[in-house]
């Protein structure tokens, strides 16, 4: 019986930081021996690999690009090295692959083919924000991006606030970084003054900012998060 390779889920840093500050040695050892990767962004992946293991020869790397423009029909071609017995790495553009990331489709396919999936420890902005928020770590939901349409966004915010109250469940969501400041304005206008809001930006970076306050208290502050990756968490008690 032919043996398959293993699919390693390889985390990356979430910005310009020393990989060894946020990634365990397991990641370095894995990158040392793997040459085939499925990545979200070719340039970013090569930079990440070089940062973790500078001795790696870039010419030896075989990278398959997986993003929102990738056709599902290409996925089977991506995993051919696995079916041939070679180990492969799956890398997100930032953080952990498979979580809020297109790599989940490859992980699903690997399971369907009977390929072993090996997740490696690394930074997850969702979990790190939740850990630092002081909100309900026993019950929370990540909702991805809010709608772009103004009215739909307002309805979504109110819906998540009601869910947090009805289920005692913290609600997480993100926004395109250049829209962060507008989202903060919307949240402070729409949410109840007593609702708790956590804003976590630049997680694991030197410019990290994480703060949880009631909406009424946020209104007394001026925060500029323009073009800074951020996660927002709300919870109405």
Automatic annotation (TrEMBL):
Keywords of the record: Cytoplasm, Methyltransferase, rRNA processing, S-adenosyl-L-methionine, Transferase
Listed Gene3D superfamilies: Cobalt-precorrin-4 Transmethylase, Domain 1 (3.40.1010.10), Methyltransferase, Cobalt-precorrin-4 Transmethylase, Domain 2 (3.30.950.10)
GO terms, biological process: methylation; rRNA processing
SUPFAM superfamilies assigned to the protein according to its UniProt record, in alphabetical order: Tetrapyrrole methylase
Highest taxon of source: Bacteria
The keyword Lyase is annotated on this UniProt entry: no
Descriptive protein name: 16S rRNA (Cytidine1402-2'-O)-methyltransferase
Organism, scientific name: Flavobacterium nitrogenifigens
């Amino acid at each position: 019986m032919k043996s398959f390779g293993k699919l390693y889920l390889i985390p990356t840093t979430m910005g310009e930081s020393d990989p060894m500050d946020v990634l365990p040695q397991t990641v370095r050892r894995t990158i040392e021996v793997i040459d085939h990767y499925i990545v979200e962004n070719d340039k970013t992946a090569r930079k990440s690999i070089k940062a973790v293991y500078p001795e790696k020869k870039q010419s030896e790397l075989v990278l398959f690009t997986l993003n929102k423009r990738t056709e599902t029909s290409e996925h089977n071609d991506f995993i051919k090295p696995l079916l041939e017995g070679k180990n492969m790495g799956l890398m997100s553009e930032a953080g952990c692959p498979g979580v809020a990331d297109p790599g989940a489709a490859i992980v699903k396919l690997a399971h369907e083919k009977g390929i072993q999936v090996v997740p490696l420890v690394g930074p997850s902005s969702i979990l790190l924000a939740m850990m630092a928020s002081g909100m309900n770590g026993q019950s929370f939901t990540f909702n991805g991006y809010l709608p772009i349409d103004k009215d739909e966004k307002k309805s979504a915010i109110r819906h998540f606030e009601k869910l947090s109250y009805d289920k005692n469940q913290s609600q997480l969501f993100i926004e395109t970084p250049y829209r962060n400041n507008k989202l903060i304005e919307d949240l402070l206008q729409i949410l109840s003054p007593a609702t708790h809001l956590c804003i976590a930006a630049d997680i694991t970076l030197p410019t990290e900012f994480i703060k949880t306050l009631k909406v009424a208290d946020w209104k007394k502050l001026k925060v500029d998060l323009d073009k800074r990756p951020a996660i927002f968490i709300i919870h109405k008690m």
